[in-house]
Amino acid sequence: MVKQTLWTIQHEDAFKEFERTGILRANNNHLFCEDDFRFACVWLSQEMVKRIGPPPANVRYPVWAWYQWEGARKRRDLRESGYAERGTPMVQIEFVADSESFVLSDFDTWNLVLANHFVADNEQEWDLFYETHPNPKQSDVEASWAKVFDLESYELNWTSRPEEKSIQATLWQIEMSQVTKVEHFIAK
Predict the structure, then answer these.
(1) Residue 37: what pLDDT?
(2) Which of 11, 74, 92, 105 lies in disulfide reach of 183, CB 3.0 to 4.6 Å?
(3) What pTM value is reported for the model?
């Protein structure tokens, strides 16, 4: 069993609940995938069941974390914007998890899933798919989404090199005993 350091960025309120209960789980009331992206979160949750097993009772969606950002095994830069609405109290939690407890996926490719697009290996495959499927079936689009888990794929001018990828980790929960560092910050 290999232990890995990961980082998750959460609202201050989620962290307070984490401190109170000792377990951080996705809160169904504060999901980024609430409306437009729920289909993608449901799909990813189903994939997680296949890859790491079912979630604990009453858990439906994963907690998001970072394995690496822009190719380096490093935490996100908290001086950047985009984590939450400007002025929102946030925390970045560093923790250690067993590699069997999370699923890794390519962040850039994940954005194609969020957009409900076909995930192609290259531009030619993309063009061919949409030329031959002007109104693609959802099942055909979703069949391509497993490519988000291929962290070694690379196509010049299409995807990032493996050593440059931003890789996200999803897991069912984090326990307070796994936490090694907490950084409080205000979203910019």
Answers:
(1) 80
(2) 92
(3) 0.92
